[in-house]
Amino acid sequence: MSSIRLIVGLGNPGREYETTRHNAGYWWVDEFARLENLGFRSEAKFHGLLARGQLHGHEILLLKPQTFMNASGRSVGAMAQFYKIAPAEILVAHDELDLPPGAARLKSGGGHGGHNGLKDIIAHLGSRDFWRLRLGIGHPGERSEVVNFVLNDPRREERELIDAAIQRALDVAHLIVEGKTEAAMLKLHSN
Q1: Residues 6+ apart with CB under 8 A from 190
Q2: How deeply is 4 buried, as exposed, middle or buried, from its count of CB atoms within 10 A (0-12, 13-18, 19+)?
Q3: Which residues are catalytic?
Q4: pLDDT tens digit string along 127-180?
Q5: Which residues contact 50 (CB under 8 A, 6 or more apart)?
Q6: What are phi and psi of 153, to 5 degrees?
Q7: Would you say residue 86 lies in a domain?
Q8: Considering the domain boundaries, does residue 1 fall inside one?
Q9: Are 184 and 172 in contact (CB under 8 A)?
């Protein structure tokens, strides 16, 4: 199992989206950067904000695409190509409709489940074989309500649950980065 070299947080740039459910991936990566004392800088050629650092002896890149969600792949694809990063060395943190607030799951590969950010990343990488950190935001119940739901703020109790899940996922981040994904899953999924 290879270690993770690139961690991507998905979200939409701009103040009006900052606290919306769709930005759960940003929240996680922001918190990760804060804990590791890493600062983001704008990188035009990667269409995103980039932070770099060391974690347990591993060089790690953090990316927040600034392309808007549906074009996230442009940013991820540019990074992967430039740094010669294989899909299996990429972790994408994103909001997940199919999990309740408070749940966080780690998985490798799979489809995009209708998530436009993942869909675009799969298209640009030409592969599904990257890791995903799925942060539950719950589902509005109606398909037609999804867009409105993800672009709105979670209720306060939901946000508290999401924040707790983000925290638990941060507790296993070092295991994920080191490629000890089995151990990470065991710890994360037993909650």
Answers
A1: none
A2: buried
A3: 22
A4: 999 999 999 999 999 989 999 999 999 999 999 999 999 999 999 999 999 989
A5: 40, 41, 42, 43, 61, 62, 63, 79
A6: -75, 145
A7: yes
A8: no
A9: yes
The count of structural domains within the chain is: 1
For the stretch 114-140, pLDDT in tens is 899 999 999 999 999 999 999 999 999
Q: Which H helix or E strand runs over 161?
A: helix 156-171
* Phi, psi (deg, nearest 5) at residue 159: -60, -40
Q: Which domain holds residue 50?
A: 6-189
In a domain, 171, yes or no: yes
Residue 139 lies in a domain: yes
CA distance 146 to 130: 25
Q: Give me the CATH number covering residue 164.
A: 3.40.50.1470
Name the pTM for this structure: 0.96
Nearest to 77 by CA among 46, 49, 55: 46
SS3 state at 104: strand
